[in-house]
Batch of 2 targets.
Target 1
Amino acid sequence: MASEEASHLYEAFVGQDPAKAIQVVERVRSSGVPQSQLFDTLYVPAMSLLGGAWAEGLIDEIVFTQASVVAEQIGSFVMPPVARPDTGVTVVIGSIHRDRHSVMKDVVASALKEAGFRVNDLGVDVRAADFLERLEETGSRIVIVFAEILATARAVSGVRDLLTAENREDVVLLVAGGPFAADPGLARAVGANGVIASAESALKVLGRVRDDILAGGAS
Amino acid sequence: MAEKKSGGKKPAAKKPAAKKAAAAPVAPVEHVPMRNPDFPVGVDYYPLDEERRSWSDWYDRDPEPDFAAMAASRISDVRVFVSWRCLETQVGQYDEDAMERLERIVEAARAHDLKLIVCFFADDRLAEMNEVPWGKRRDSRTDDYLIQRELSLVQKIVNRYRAEPVIKAWDLGNEAFCSGFETETALEKWVTELREAVREVDPDRPVLLGVDPETLLRETGVDPRGAIDLTERAWSHLTAPYRAYIAEGPVTSGPATYTDSFLLRAALRDLPVVVDGIGVHALEFSAAEEAAYVRTALYSALMNRASGAMLRRWRDLETEKREPYFRDPFEVLVGVVDVTGAPKPVLNEVKRFAAVAARLDPRRYALAPERAAVVIPAERYESLPSLAGLYDPRACLQAYIAAKEAHVPVTVAREGDELGGYHALYLPSPAKLTPAMWADLSAFVQGGGSVVLSYGGGDVDPALREIFGVEFNGDAGPRHAFACRVAQPGVLGDLRSFDARMDLPHYGLVTASGAMVVATDATGSPLLTVNQYGQGKAVFIATPVERAIAQNDPWATPTPVRHLLRTVYGTVASAAGAGAMLECDTPEAEIAHFLGEDDDILLILSHNAEKMTATLTTPRTVATVQDVRGGAPAEVGGKTFCVPLGPNGVAALRVKFG
Amino acid sequence: MTPTRSSQVLVAEDLARRGQLPAAVAACYEALAVNDRDPFVHALLGHLMLEGDFYDEAIAASTQAIELDPDCSPAYLALGLAYDRRGGMWDQSVLVWHELAEVVPDLVTAHVQLGEAFAAAAFEEEAVDSWRRALELDPKEARAHYNLAIAALKREGMSTALPTIRKAGELDPSQDELFFALLGLPAERLEFDVAKVKPEAEARLFAAGMLLRAEDFFGASDLVRLVLDEDPANAEALALAAYAYLKQEAANEAMACALRALTYSPDLPTALYTLGVVYSRFPGLAKHAARVFIALAKAAPQHSLTHVLLAESLLGLQRYGQAKQAYRAAVRLDPACVRARFGLAAVRLTEGGYAEAQWEMRRAAYYDTRRQGNFWRLYDAYAEGGDS
């Protein structure tokens, strides 16, 4: 079935018929092939057939070029989705009050956005009350607080204290930055639920937190 | 904290059966001192902690809280710095207020059972301690009048505290101050006069000179060994400029993690050596990197025969803030507590280290003797245009690392030293050796010692043929690739053929005239030969491999090249009876083996910033392995056990054989 | 007035040009014995000390040269590079590069180095301006692109930085060199007559490869066509055709030919390379690119760039840890690989490893500036008494 449709797609390329090519793609898609699989199951074999036809001299250089233009035109129909699906999970992040370090925060924020998290970046020098306010506003239950110097890292306890005072013990407080990497005990001391050591660890930890939250039925 | 992760973990026995075995009964609680008096940990306590302060603010603060925190962190010694400028405001007139400040420090030390090392003449590039306004810009190191005033100051202070038990030692001057001397003679004269001034008043307390023999030589061209020998204690430390010269790169991996102990080994001659200046040199490092580096340096000191360790600075210097971290050419910025006085993660490392060191009672445990040495050639002391003084320390550091990677208990010696105590010597890439050294080598090898010599370029001494059994046919010049073809497998360990991309500055063309060719280059020109000479073995490497590692990228040395060097070093040492007492499969795990009567202690230090597991194999069956700080011993019942190590982690294990 | 050089200086200079460091240093000292106020000798010594990685000595000698003649541009170059390679001397470095950029405005390196010195001193905006100025002078200046990518990473994350890293990589001639190395072409360029190429597939493909390297796409295509006419299933010919299309920005033709080649020879490195490069141009094909580059790194593990390409595709998948391993493999094979160094720096930044990231970038600059050989250009211009 797939190889047959790939032949049809190839024929549409060579026939310079983008409408027919789109019909082939839609037909295959409606047969149950997911978007993420269309490229491999349909487009790749069709392109291989096209290359083979050119190599064998079945089509000349001009037809090859024109067919490639058609292939390019319908490329967007078969491309796997670029953005990862929205996780539905909102994360509030920022550097703690009196800390103006932003590099790690920006890198982690970007990675989380790319992975489909809804990131609310409050920037640098963020007070505990501002974290809480944004959590309330967005309904988020995850906050990542960044601190690169020891004094500000210790001040993250103020965020936990405020969350406790406001009966928001359901909020997952994650911390990131050099002092926490050096001393995991510090994260416990400030009342954090976990440490983010890198952008990749942010993705892993948030993935787990997301699963827990979804399992709990709330966002 | 990373150390807790690694060092705190119980070693896993390799055999599953052993893993399942029930823990042996917990040993009875023994009294362990808070600190090890034979290996004190100290810290430099600088007079100013804020850049905006002026010279007149010298120790104008209550030291009590700081000293209390030091004592709580198991710190024993504190070095304080005298300000001549504050004390002798006018010629012969000593400022009582300044004297009071010094007294306040002494009282605080007394209150917290800390020992003070008083440094008379120091430059911290901030407190202007020696810039006496009446000195009229004369050189305080060489001007007779100023030296007389210095003697008076020294005697005044020593006299005041000669019966004071908290004073542990008198430090005549730190390296920043001593770097102003231009000749050995001037330095030795100054040290002699000051030492005699101290001795007139205080005949007992040790006098020391706070300079490292290698770093000061590099900085100034002045060899301070003669001056150091006039004192009773030697110090060793890594300075920022020396680090930029010897191992410029990441501080938690590669050569940088061996540099402190290399300098310590180079400073160890006749006097006990304290490693000072432990800490990073700039604030660009994260708290985790600071902690990892300090952990490495502290354990390196303990594992390599230091008599103590001193941290670079107590409190961070408060300066202008700039993101992401500010930086400054000063090298005494970084402390173990932050600008507010709150402890940094590095202080936890210090505390944990002191707890481990306290378990190492030198009356019960002795470090396994080093019978192998890297030899610093005499040419190292030549000045430009000879490049030996620039190349050799780097090559020697790489040789030292290779020996450590082979787990050979190794030290550093110098050409001209007595060689009788060694069984194996490494001579890394010297351009030349003195005739006397060739004679010594001949006698050494004939007497049963083993030598590894790598070709350093240029002509060679005729003795090469006699001792190493090779005929030298000239220098083939530089190469851009390193090829090795093994001709005789197994003769010098598990060598493997390889082709690596690496610049070699020279390649000595030799033919065997008695030696066995163990490996060649790609076209059959001998690379590695071994010659039986008398009762010993002489191994020749036809290219300056240690220099090449240093002059290429020592953090990216091709794996097979490192393997070649450590295999040759390790095999030669083992055959000569100078090898490791136990085997370890992980080159980056440094091992110090402390031998005891009932049990041994192993310190295992990772020189890698990634997690790893070291597998150790001992010649005897290991009954149990236990963290030296306590906990249940793990039964092993075999000769092999695994030790998990965190990034730059340490394991301190008590091993019982049975 | 044109500065003149003594015969002793000429001897030292000759030895220095031939890379004979110890002899050149000795000759410099002989020249100094004759005239210790000759800026040429001090400049040469500065360069030689820099070549030996003896930074403090290089700084001392270059400073001396500048003191003797404030117009001694090669000494500024050596001084700035010594500051940068030594590290921790950014304030001084900024001044030197600023000066040199004014004296020799077309010296692209001065702007790149100035940017790096600014960045190390945390003056990000000034740094970006400097790199942009470098790109105005030379749009292909890879290190300026890489630095801009790192600057983008710091502000906006990997998704913004990665396209710039890739763009810089494609401008970097070493990527094309990888293809020809995978093809098995000798490093040296051979002259040959197309008309005399033997009528055998192997000879034709070799010749086609040589023509491709010379960017003679039509000549190469004719030869490939001859091979395919005889054997349409010749995978190597199809891979060559794919590469030729890729170089002519015909990505779909390239994809078609590469995919066809891989149906005949699934591990063919040249086809894997071309397909991987095509895939990596489409953000949606990040996984596909990674799959192809994993296969390429396995098929040709001895080439550092195969690991770099794999690492970059892993960055696109947010697998930073695996990317770090691949980059490290690349650096082990070739410590001078600027692209791998910057990639490692990017990965280290995602881990908060600021100091190590800085070091990787400094290492990249180290190898890049060593390769450029700008000292002799400035030195010769200085000797001639004119601008470079």
Target 2
Amino acid sequence: MSELAARPGWDRRQLARYVQNYGVYAAVVVLLAYNALFTRNFVDMGNMRTQLVQVAPVIIVALGMALVIGTEGVDLSVGSVMALAAAVIPLYLGFGLWPAIIMSLLIGLAAGLVNGTLVAVVGLQPIVATLALLVAGRGIALVIAGGQLKQVHNADLIALGTNDVAGLPVVVWIAAVLALLTGLLVRRTTYGRQLVAIGGNRAAAGLAGLPVRRVLIVTYVLCGVLAGLAGVLATARLRASDPSAIGNLMELSAITAVVVGGTPLSGGKVRVLGTVAGALVMQLVRATLIKHDLPDSTAQMVQAVIILVAVYVARERRTR
Amino acid sequence: MSELTVPGAAPGVPVKRELNSERFAGLAQRHGALAVLAVVVIAASLIWPTFSNGDNLAGIAVHSFYPVIIALGMTFVIVSGGIDLSVGSVFALGGVLAAYASQWGPVAAIGLPLAVCAVFGLVQGTIIAKTGMAPFIVTLAGLLGARGLLLAVTTEGSKTYLFPAGDGFVRLAQGKLFGISYPVYAAVLLAVLAAVLLQRTKYGQALFAVGGNEDAAALMGLPVARIKILTYTLCGLLAGLAGVLNAAWTGSGVTIIGVGDELNAIAAVVIGGTLLVGGAGGISGTVCGVLLLGVIQNVINQIGSLTSSVQSVVSGAFLVVVVVAQTYLSKARRLR
Amino acid sequence: MTEPVIAARDVVKRFPGVLALDRVSLSLAPGEVHALVGENGAGKSTLIKILTGVYQADAGEIAYAGQPVTFARPLDAQTAGISTIYQEVNLIPLMSVARNLFLGREPRTRIGLIDTGRMNREAAEALARFNIDADVTRPLRTIGLGAQQMVALSRAVATDAKVLIMDEPTSSLEPREVETLFRVVRELSARGIAILYVSHRLDELYQLCSNVTVLRDGRVVHTGRIADLDRLTLISHMLGRDLAQVRREGVTGFTGHGDAAATEPVLVADGLTKRHVLHGISFDVKPGEVVGLGGLLGAGRSETAKAVVGALPVDSGAVTIAGKRLRRNSPKKAIRAGVAMLPEDRKAEGIIPGLSVRENIVLAALPRLTTAGVVSRARQDRIVETFMKRLRIKASSPEQRVSELSGGNQQKVLLARWLCLHPKLLLLDEPTRGIDVGAKAEVQALVDELAGEGLAVVLISSDLEELVEGADRVVVLRAGAVVGELAGDDVSEHAIMATLAAHEGEPDE
């Protein structure tokens, strides 16, 4: 009797847990399978390539966002930081590709440092702390760029946005490598484990002697640098630095990818692969709707519902 | 009932715990926005004579009426300890629906958008209050949902509805009294009503209590869930109303407006001294916050050589200075 | 005896894994001031929450004015006339005094708006009756805690309460404020309001209450007139030690200790002081010695431990570890100096629930297992394996989530977290509370073993038996001050209780 009762069956709790853990991967598979069967020209190389190129910057930003959300925070400024990074590129492209990229990443680093300091040292709520830079960042970017779109003609930079390596676009490789590195960072390094512990129980982490402030600042800095890199790649792909358009509403896409990927907003858990899958799901949903001639309005409402469902499912159930 | 006296309680209970510096910190926190606004206005009038002429001031007022109305709702939500990211989208939706419904007369042009926007807020509020999901994420979904609804109404944003030529509602909205547009009076009236609602009604008191200490409010027997739902409904309603008035003023339901207005509203509310953690704040501060942002924009226009993007830099800088100052003022008042 | 105004009969309340109340009965007559006492986890707050409608009883009944009632919500209980004053003042700090006083029942003008003028006037009058002269338009925060407590009391009385429940109302008050509060309580009692008074300050109970009910482990262990009960007996009821049965040898996992050699102390705490909490606490611990901190709930034992590890900033006083004074103490610094603390609240301050057993064990040691930022998995596994074996941690694997473990095993995981740092000083705050008997004995034996290896241990426990058998010396605390120290053969349950009782009733400070 008792053995029977103890046997793992498909009770509701367990089902909920499976959905929580694997739902997002299942969604990717289902979406791909559906499109393979019912959507013409979906699973061909050209289309897959487009989808991946479009989703790569979202993934890069979402990786940083996942780290921040893992600390029970949020970074609203990522889109503006992308614009800042993009605005800086034309200024330094004259010195070569690498100086320009390094300056862009440094801008991202500085932005992260500001956010991290406001959160960890001043003690502001992450929403307000990063809201300020969301508002101001794009303004600064526009001031730097003189409010104008600037074409870039540097062949190396354009190659970064358009070339292939081993059959896949460079941006896709970069996103994949960064996802791998972020995964290792979270799982294998002291910093990663401390981050998750701080997000899970800040009081206990502090009592265990963890460097809470330092870890928080580093996390916002990483998020800023990744956003900066995404800004560089967006510029490369557009062949232009357009601070008024680059990164617009990226904070929403990134947060959505993280949340749909199963990382709880309450912190203490970072799902790197889930975040990648979350970004893919949102991309595939949009593509599917477009391919089936469903309008943008439907796409947005569907996204809204997906976010709500994902957060509802990922809610940490209270264990009493 | 409480005819109670304590005989011979001579020593008394030490009551005062507040130092003058703390009192000053409290004042600065509550009225800082007004003081800064006054300084900026006086300085601007001295530097640019054109700033203080009637037309310019009326211009600032008319550009501030709809942000004020949105920020009123946001003040309620933030006082309750929440946040509403959907107001920009709901604002745009309200305007589009007003223009769309104007073909059936002014009652429909006002009634339909207000009803839809209020229901939109009601749904968000219910989800937040009943599932315990974070307001931040629920209203983020609301931001997308309202925008989607708007696109659906306007055939994917390609159709801009216009109010019928000579529409009475439009003429009213575009009319002026003493050189000031009617919607400005509407915003002032709404601000007064909101202040009364917040300070002089049971609901307003309950709102402060829920934002200040939700557990204590529940223990004191306040209906916390109902208060939250009402608050998000009110916020949706006000954002929709802002959209209606703006649409009538411009004579059309523009589809691409409202993006980022939620951030301006939050910034204005926070600059106005309302604590983002909830439980404290006021309407006058919010109005000052909106006006401050409007004046800054106007001043940047006066300078002329600066692009409008400088405005967001200044707004963002203001926001940081204000919240950091607030944090340290709170510490000085031992609120944390 | 008069008809009770409120009575609980055989109330049972279960939480997953715990029987919080086991057939508890309690009744209050009008005008009665009834003391409710018990240590942590005895069930006091569960009982209060059932009486006030926060929880509902699983079995048994609540009778109010002779009629059986069920309060579904706190509001129902309040409307019926049951008001509660909580330990932490449960009002809204940022709202004005008057608004707090009238929240939910504001006086209105003819057009339905709140009549601010009348509200402020009536609030000032109401507080004046309690001899409080405060500016009622200022935020509640700005008045003293005592005055805040009076506002809460005034609010409770103004709602026409028949029953008033006071949950440790004096824990943060100054002596003068306590006096005023007592006068008010007596006055209320004279008006026929029944008062349930929860406190761990025995002198208050004897001053104020006529009857007492003692709860322990969810059961009523004694109820009756307080005058018939001397302090020592009352304490023995609370702590669960039958005086007749107090023996020198018990059944804990401790064995006898060798005496600590007269070496340099590992810890010297000198005059630790924090307003309202600690008043000049001084003691020392030598290597291989187990020093117990004794005292009732709220005596400042946990706070002392937290002050030592730098988690509670002190106003003055010094902590010296192995001859080195810790300046600007913080957990990080204390840990580096060789201090480890097992916190009292395992859930809130100990485990990281979402992480595995392995990750919880190595958490504090991470920097020491790291090369170039990467944590060595092999070294982690070695530590985890060693300690899981040594502490007999029962988990399906090191990768099991720590939140799925039993309380005892969670406690062992936390012990492992600290032991793998090889600390010089280990502070154990209630190390065996809420864990099963087997694990308890294991933890106790381990403490012995560690002391035998030369570790200095501070043991905090409400279990007198554990304290007596585990500790070489016991420092007794009361109201944040050291009131006695017992060593060698003087360490006995009777002696500890006698020390506690002797010092009860002495004036504060």
